[in-house]
Write a structure and sequence with these properties.
Elements lengths: L81 E3 L13 H8 L11 E6 L4 H12 L3 E6 L8 E7 L8 E7 L4 E3 L3 E6 L15 H20 L4 E3 L2 H7 L2 H11 L6 E4 L2 H10 L3 E4 L4 E2 L7 E3 L2 E2 L16 E5 L5 E8 L2 E8 L19 E5 L3 H13 L4 E8 L5 E7 L5 H7 L3 H11 L16 H10 L5
Parallel strand pairs: 2-3, 2-7, 7-8
Antiparallel strand pairs: 1-12, 4-5, 5-6, 9-14, 10-13, 10-14, 11-12, 15-16, 15-18, 16-17, 18-19
Length: about 475
């Protein structure tokens, strides 16, 4: 949700749920066991215009051409709704990497023997990383940026672990070298894992067996880095990100805490899908990972879409891949709650309200939308904070719907959600809050900016004029 302002993001299928209140169950101490993501290959664009049977038609009544391998082939149902990225979003992104700027004009990063570095793990064209890096530099903080596209070439990463001393302590050291400079990993104080953990080294499947091998080895190497640097302050810790990426974990925990959620079904059984659609007249289809494509130009997005009578025949395609169906929530406004450490920023987004607004707010034109900072009801704000805390996250972008009768319904939490568009439209200091968290750790007060004589303020001003205005 709200990824209208960035390619990646969550989805907005929604539906009424019943709020439940009660004592919070004891937090579990179990750690999830990470596994490597499996990414399906991209599938060519296809559209279907065929008329179909009624939505209440039984699965046993399907005609022969609904069977995979005939006219519809093996296309998953959700891919019927995939749309190309709008042309206006294909404009090449501008980047302002302050770490590269300083390396060129001041000094290349190098080991210093001081554990005072902030490592940002991101991708090349990430304006959110640009903004936070600049805030950190403006505080006089040593920042090192690792763009994952640069690994394994030209970036170089080495990790060494050996027997400890008599006290049994582990000895390790590591170096990360990029075209910008060199970082001693034992000097890292904080890590901002801005890159999505499930797609750390790429969304698109590798081109061949060698590429697949390198991808797996790269994932394993980063897991080793995360384990060795586990005593650094992470925003957020990899094990927490793995767990929190599960929509089922999110929905289950939201219910336990007392948040209302939509009625939700995930299935690859056409009969179950039809039964759900019959029981839930306003059914929405969405995807766990609603983005496919090998390049920006070929990328397509799967927004939340209503299932209508024209889709009845195509429900048999559910058998070709798991499909996520949800009940649609009556909506007065979309609400994004950004939680950073112990701080909360709530934003409400409304369309024109003339009946032409899209179901999925990612398709809203921000120029015609009303986006404003709001104060959540204290109970809702507390539940959002508890949700992030129970997931062991330091950052979370929570998507809610405010209904016409002023109930708040939980949709999902994005562990790497977009927020720079909110900062631009509302002037809420979100980049400042993330920078402060990385410098001081959780629960710390905001760090004051340096005086106007500070040499990095010239760069900060250039960034504000050159980048932030074009988010």
């Amino acid at each position: 949700m709200f990824a209208r302002f960035g390619v990646a993001g969550g989805s907005v299928a929604r539906g009424p749920g019943r709020s439940r209140r009660g004592a919070e169950p004891a937090a579990t101490t179990e750690r999830p066991v990470p596994c490597l993501p499996i990414v399906a290959p991209a599938i060519g664009r296809t559209s279907w215009k065929e008329p179909g049977p009624r939505l209440d038609q039984d699965d046993d009544d399907r005609s022969g051409d609904d069977v995979p391998g005939t006219s519809r082939g093996g296309l998953p149902f959700a891919l019927l709704f995939a749309e190309p990225i709008p042309v206006e979003r294909l404009t090449p992104r501008h980047r302002y990497d302050v770490t590269a700027e300083l390396a060129t004009n001041v000094r290349r990063p190098r080991p210093t023997g001081r554990r005072d570095k902030v490592l940002i793990v991101t991708s090349k064209y990430d304006d959110h990383a640009d903004a936070v890096a600049l805030e950190l530099v403006a505080r006089g903080c040593a920042v090192f940026r690792f763009d994952v596209e640069s690994f394994p070439a030209p970036a170089r990463l080495s990790l060494l672990i050996e027997d400890g001393a008599a006290d049994g302590r582990v000895r390790w050291q590591g170096t990360l070298q990029t075209p910008v400079g060199e970082l001693a990993l034992t000097e890292v104080r904080s890590v901002w894992l801005r890159r999505r953990i499930l797609e750390l080294f790429g969304l698109v499947p590798p081109p061949d067996d060698a590429g697949a091998f390198v991808r797996r080895e790269s994932d394993a190497t980063f897991s080793g880095l995360a384990a060795l640097a586990g005593d650094a302050f992470w925003v957020s810790a990899p094990h927490a990100l793995w767990r929190a990426e599960s929509k089922f974990v999110q929905l289950q925990l939201a219910v336990e805490l007392g948040l209302a959620i939509p009625r939700t079904l995930v299935t690859n059984d056409p009969a179950e899908a039809r039964a759900f659609v019959r029981a839930v007249p306003n059914t929405v289809v969405k995807a766990f990972r609603g983005q496919i494509g090998a390049t920006v130009e070929s990328t397509r997005l799967i927004y939340a879409n209503r299932i209508g009578p024209e889709h009845a025949a195509d429900l048999d395609l559910v058998r070709n891949g798991p499909c996520l169906l949800q009940e649609e929530v009556p909506k007065a406004a979309d609400v994004r709650v950004t939680v950073i450490g112990g701080r909360l920023f709530a934003t409400e987004l409304q369309g024109r309200g003339d009946g032409t607004d899209p179901l999925d707010c990612r398709k809203l034109d921000p120029a015609g939308a009303n986006c404003r900072a709001i104060d959540l009801p204290p109970t809702v704000a507390s539940l959002c904070m508890r949700l992030v805390d129970r997931l062991a996250l330091e950052f979370g972008a929570i998507d809610l719907v405010r209904t016409p009768d002023d109930r708040y319904v939980f949709l999902e939490i994005n562990v790497n959600g977009q927020w720079l568009w909110i900062e631009k439209l509302t002037r809420m200091p979100i980049a400042d809050a993330i920078a402060s968290l990385l410098v001081k750790g959780r629960g710390a007060p905001a760090v004051a900016l340096p005086t106007s004589e500070h040499p990095t303020n010239a760069l900060r001003g250039a960034y504000a004029a050159d980048v932030l205005t074009r988010v």
